[in-house]
Each structure stands twice: as structure tokens, then as C-alpha cells.
Amino acid sequence: MCPTICAIPPRKSAASYMVDEWDANKWAWDGVLKVISKGAECIIRLEGKKTGELFARAFLRHGEAHPVEPAIDSSRRHFVLRIEENIGEHLYFAMSLVSVSDLSEIEFP
């Protein structure tokens, strides 16, 4: 999967994220998304296309909120990803899938 990423403003309410709240055409980064799972650990990694350098990562952990949330006003192309900088420190980025074929690979519980 090759998503594009942009920083987003804080939520305006407790409601889900909406694409209309951010500039979906102002992307700061694009690269490769990899999901790595081993045992009980699952990591979502955003890596540079050419270098493979780590841009950001998100963790899927039992008992914690899912790090990927679909935007409620999109056609399953736009998501919010909770990035973990350090333990307990989070940033939120909008993630858009460029290729429609990437959509078939995503499932939410």
C-alpha cells in the first residue's frame, strides 16, 4: 500500500474525523505502509518508498484503541492514523490511499 500523509488539526468534537476538516490535497509525505505482526505484537510502519527509512509507526495493542480510524465522510480512502512518538505520546495524521486497489486490503473489526 502506498498512502499519502498530512498533519491534521485536533478534533472539533467527540464525533469521528471528517475529511472536510483537513486539506486532503496538502500532503506532507508519501511512501509505503507495512503491517508487521509477530505473536501478540502488531506494528503499522510508514516507510520511505526508495530508502525504506522509518517515517512513523503505530501499534495495535490488546486493550487499547485501534490506531486506524476511517473518516466518516469518505469512500473508505481516507483514515486517521494514531502515530506513537514515544510511549504515551501520540500524533494524529490523515492518511489517504492513492490507489483504489489498496482499498480491498483493508478490513476493520
From TrEMBL:
GO terms for cellular component: clathrin vesicle coat. It comes from the Eukaryota. Residues 6-95 form the NECAP PHear domain. InterPro entries: NECAP_PHear (IPR012466), PH-like_dom_sf (IPR011993). One of its GO terms (biological process) is endocytosis. Pfam families: DUF1681 (PF07933). This is NECAP PHear domain-containing protein. The lineage of its organism: Eukaryota, Viridiplantae, Streptophyta, Embryophyta, Tracheophyta.
